[in-house]
User: Fold these one by one.
Assistant:
Number 1:
Amino acid sequence: MASPGKVYLIGAGPGAQDLITLRGARLLAQADVVLYDALVTPEMLQLCPQAEKVLAGKRSGQRSLAQQIINEMLVDYAHKAQLVVRLKGGDPMMFGRADEELRALEAAGIDVEIVPGITTALAAAAATRQPLTKRGIARSVAFFTSSTAPEHSDHDAIPETDTLVQYMGGREAIATAERLLAHGHAPDKPVVVIENVSRADQRIHRMTIADLTQGLGTPQGPVLVMIGEAMRPRPQQHVDTAISNTIAAQLRA
Amino acid sequence: MASPGKVYLIGAGPGAQDLITLRGARLLAQADVVLYDALVTPEMLQLCPQAEKVLAGKRSGQRSLAQQIINEMLVDYAHKAQLVVRLKGGDPMMFGRADEELRALEAAGIDVEIVPGITTALAAAAATRQPLTKRGIARSVAFFTSSTAPEHSDHDAIPETDTLVQYMGGREAIATAERLLAHGHAPDKPVVVIENVSRADQRIHRMTIADLTQGLGTPQGPVLVMIGEAMRPRPQQHVDTAISNTIAAQLRA
C-alpha cells in the first residue's frame, strides 16, 4: 500500500482572494483534494481548479458536520491522495479547531504542515484603518470568543487588555456590552463592528459600548466586534462609513 | 504640481518570502518606492526589483531613525512618486506604529491603504504546531509587549487570558516570568520561545515558566514568548526541537 499523503492546514484569510499568502496559493494550485470550511469564499476556491473540492464545514445555525467526522475525512483523504489541503477561514491556529484535527492526523501517523493566514482581526484593523495598538493608548490586545455552552455560562469572558476583539460576536453583542459596563468600561468607549471583512459585502459600523447594549440584530455574515480607545477615529481620518446610532436596524436591513 | 501618490502600508509577515499576501506581493512588484523597516528580510525585497528601496527602520539597540523622520520621509516620497509602499515586518496594525504614520499621511492629505500581514504570533503557532486556542483549554489569547519606559515601570503588563504571547520578549524574559509567578501562574506551565520565526535560522525552545526565570540571554533576532496550557505538546506530536533546560546557553551559542 502506498504511503499516505501530506496534509496542509492552510489559513485562507478573511475572504478576499488576494489576502491568502503566496505559500497558501501555491499549495492550493498543487492540491489533489481541498477540504474547505463554511467560511471559505467561492473566489478562494478558484485558486484550485484542478482539485477535488469538499465542503467540510461547521457553522452555527446551519447544518454542519461534526468535528469527529471532519477528522475522519482528513485521515481518509490522506490515505487516498498525495497533497491534501485543509482550508480554513482566517488563521487555523486561532479559533480554528486545529487542535482536534492535528491530534487525529498525528494519531494516524500522517505528516502535517501549517500555513498561517490573515486572522480576521487584522484584516478588520486594515479595512477600518484602526490600529489595534497605539503608543501611550493601547499596548495589549486580547482576542476572545464567548461560548454559550452551559459549562461556560458563568465564565467571565472579558479579558483585561487595552484593546478587545471578540470573534463571532454578532449574537453575543448585548451580553458582551453588559459585561463590559459591569467591568467599569465607560459607556462612550468606542466600538467598531465589522461584518464580512474584506468581501464585497463588507460593512463597518462605528458606535459605543452604550450603543452595543442595543444588540446587533441577526447579521448574515461573520461579525467581529472591536472595543477600546484605539478604535477612536483620528482627527483627520477619512471615515468612509456613516456613524450609526441605529445599528440593529442597519444590520437587519 | 502633480497630485501626490498613494501610500500602501503593507505587512510583510514574519520573514519568509512566501508568507506575504498575494495583494502585498502584487503591490510590491508595482511600487515606485519601498520604505522598509529593519525587520524586513532581504528575500522580501527581491519581490520589488524595480523599486527604489529605502531603509526606514527602528530597531532597539541599533542606530535607527526617529519616528518623526520616518513620517516626513513617507510624506516626501508620496509627493515624488505615484505608488509608495511602507513595508513592515509582521502586521502593520499590531505593534507597528501605524497610528503615527497614518496621522502624518492624513494630515498631509495623502491617500493611504493598508494591506494586512501575517503577525508573528500566528506564524509561530504554525511553525511550532501549537494552536493558540484549544477547546476546553484556551478560549482567549492576549498579545502584549512590555515597555521599559519609566512611565510604564510599575505597569502590570500581564493580561488575564488563557494564552499569552509576548512580542519582543527576549530581553524582558526574567521580568515576565517573575510577574507570571506573582500572578499565580504555575511554575511548570509550558512556554514556547521562538526566535526568527519562518526564517532559515528559526529556533524553537520549549520550557516552563520556571525555566524562563533564568532568562534568554541576548538573542540575535526577534523573539516571541508564548505561555499557557495550549503550549503543551500533544501526546503524539512530533516535537522537532530538543527540549532545553539550558536555554540561556543555547540562545547565546
Number 2:
Amino acid sequence: MASTITLKKLGTRIREKRKSRGWTQEALAELAEIDRSYIGGVERGERNLTFSVLCQICSALNCDVAELTKGIPGGNP
Amino acid sequence: MASTITLKKLGTRIREKRKSRGWTQEALAELAEIDRSYIGGVERGERNLTFSVLCQICSALNCDVAELTKGIPGGNP
C-alpha cells in the first residue's frame, strides 16, 4: 500500500498545476467549490480525496484526471 | 457537477479493464483487497471511491490511474 506516497505525488501535481496558473489556494478553492484548508491538505498529500472532489479540482484547473495522474500509482515500486 | 456521470464513466472503464483480463469481480476484489460488493458499486458508478481505493484497483489491474481516466471529467460538457 503506497497510498501516502501516491497522495503526495498527486498533491504535488495539483500544486504545480495551480501555480502554473498563477493562482492562490484561495482562488482554486473558490473555483472548485472546496474549502481552502482542504485544498491545502490535498496538496500536502494529507487528504485521501474522493474521485468527485478530484474531478472538481480538475474542472477548476481545466485539465483531465489523466493529466494529473500519469504514472500513478506507478507499478510496484 | 457531473459527478454521477463521471463516476459511471470510471466504473464502466474499470469493468471493461477487469473483463479484458478475464477476471470476476471476486478476483479483482481479492487482488485489490476490497470487498466484492464495493467493487460492484464502483463499477455501477454508485460509489464515490477515494483516490487510495482507486490506486488499489489500478494496482490490481496493473494500469495507472491516467489510463482509466482519459477524458474524465471532460472539460465542460
